[in-house]
Amino acid sequence: MRKWFGIILAGLLALLIIAPAGCGSKVKGTKPEDQDVITNKAVATFGRLASETVVSGKLEALNSANVVPKMSGKVAAITVDVGSEVAPGDLLLSLEAADIAALVDLYEAQLEKARNSDLPAQKNQAELALTNAGANLKVAEADYRRSGQLLDATVIPAQQFEQSERMYIQAKAAYEAAQNALDILINATIPETIRQCEAQLEKARADFANSVIRSPISGVVTARHVNPGEMASPTQPVITLVNLDPVVVRANINEDRINKINTGQSIKIRVGSVRNEPFTGIVTNIALAADPTTRAYPVKIQIENPQHVLKPGMFAEIYLHSGDEEGVIIPREALATSGEKSNVWVIKDGVVSLREVVPGHSDGQKVIIKSGLAEGEEVAVTNLDSLKEGMKAGARG
Prior knowledge:
The chain is built from 6 helices and 19 strands. By secondary structure, the protein is an alpha+beta fold.
């Protein structure tokens, strides 16, 4: 009895030791073929496909503009920001122009006087105006210098200094205008005075118009280089504009293909970063001479872009038709590339296996397989990165 009890006890202990080890090995030993990945599938079919050569290109804006002011000045206001859409003539920014506006008023008054007054009276008024302008300039200059010293000593705020600076600039402009008016009247006749006043007024009005900067094209603001309160200069752009509708693809076409395309021809263009379905472009320009560096012919293809999904700098694939080709056809998405090799995942009896193939021409949606795949075989189309050799694929057609 004791002997049988000992045998039974030993057997139970052995089971307790073996069972956990067995369970653990089952979890760790899961093989790829025991896993299941859902993937769309497609059947390789024999047929005819429009043969196309793929040429790389780059998207550019049809029009762009770096807007610069015609005069220097402090920026008073900016009405646009990055991403704003503008039309020709829309206001972009304005410069402070109180001194120019004052000159416009002054020259208008002088012209009116020249037309309605005699010359001696005008000279007397011009001399008086110059005297008053000189006195105002001295006061404004003294206040400006004193404000600068107080600003350096942090006694007054910058706003108060800017106000005195503005008054000094306006007083100086008024004095110069009064001096010019008197110089004109010294040896002038009434008709000459009128012509001089008209020229001064026209110049002042042009300067005032130049203080308002408007958009020269339709487009989108892609950069704003100044802020209100900063100085703008004719040597630096203040706003950058880009027209995104339409956009242009620039490409270089070899000599064996260049005579197969024509201006106005529709061409399929695929921009992979936007979508797989090709866009339709129109050839707008074909160079008559090859580029001496690339020995290829520059071509421009225009694409409508109302949603602005196509952006300058994106790479594009241009499909040039070169005849028809027969062979085994699969969706382009089913073709995977690794270095210089092309592969497909073949599904057989619910199990996937990687197979190297030799692709032919593609129309952007389908591709010819020259060798490595037979008609009627099934290939995986989606989740290619998740597949492994021997894995079970829950495929759906």
